[in-house]
């Protein structure tokens, strides 16, 4: 699947070689892929295809201009999103690249809320790795960073601080962290804040259901 804008922009992109080597154009196409992908549920193959396509655009943009913060930012975002669709081994290998991009981007702009959210998600996922996943990391000689739920929560709360408008995805991860910490009241509060956001996309609706189940299972 290739991104199919119903405008002359995409047609110009595929016929004009200069645009295919324009990093400013490419990272914006990567961003468009991510935005469109979020219209679909996580298991919809169209979402996966759009994320992988967007990752190609973003990586190429960053390769063409390593001084572009936006190209780096979208490379980190899309590499992180792509890990959802990989097996354990590939997810770990891709995770190493993702963390490298993420660290570089945060080093440039430490208060960028999307990057803080992504680092929080990385910490959250690492802290919740299964025994098998940790064994694979050991086999691949990938030294896992020391990550805790509290560190993940701190990043999500920081992202919430720097984001001027409500961001349901981040609110839901805060709720997840409090659920893991068995702080049911706080988890419920942040879930309700996420539910109150107008017109959530399909991906957010799916996550709301997941978090609601997590909280309902707490004693």
Task: Describe the protein in words.
The structure is a single chain. This protein is mainly alpha-helical. It has eleven helices and no strands. It has helices at 8-15, 23-37, 45-64, 69-82, 88-108, 113-127, 131-139, 149-162, 168-180, 184-195, 202-216. Helix 3 (45-64) packs antiparallel against helix 4, helix 4 (69-82) runs antiparallel to helix 5 and helix 10 (184-195) runs antiparallel to helix 11 (202-216). The relative contact order is 0.09. The mean pLDDT is 86.
How is this fold's topology laid out?
Elements: H1 8-15, H2 23-37, H3 45-64, H4 69-82, H5 88-108, H6 113-127, H7 131-139, H8 149-162, H9 168-180, H10 184-195, H11 202-216
Helix pairs in contact: 2-3, 2-4, 3-4, 4-5, 4-6, 5-6, 6-8, 8-9, 9-10, 9-11, 10-11
InterPro entries: RMD1-3_a_helical_rpt, TPR-like_helical_dom_sf
GO molecular function, one term: microtubule binding
Protein name: Regulator of microtubule dynamics protein 1
Shape, principal axes of CA atoms = globular
Beta-strand proportion: under 5%
Derived structural class = mainly alpha
* End-to-end CA span: 45 Å
Reported for the largest beta sheet, the result is: none
Topology as H/E string? HHHHHHHHHHH
- Quaternary state reads single chain
GO molecular function: microtubule binding
InterPro entries: RMD1-3_a_helical_rpt, TPR-like_helical_dom_sf
Pfam family, one: RMD1-3
Protein name: Regulator of microtubule dynamics protein 1
